[in-house]
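Progress against Task 2.4 (sequence-to-structure conversion) is shown through the following example record, which the project officer requested during the mid-term review.
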Amino acid sequence: MPWLIVLLLVLLLFGGGFVLEALWWVAVIALVVWALGFVLRSTNSTGGRGTWYRW
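Structure tokens generated for the chain above:
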């Protein structure tokens, strides 16, 4: 029975590590998309820079 608890603990820690690694990659991709949107935003009819999002 103790080996089952250890196995479940290892699986839980491995899954948590995988999720944290995936979240880091999602954060990096979101940062790159945000930076590209900030750099590549288009101009509006008055010649000023518009925003690429609606807030």
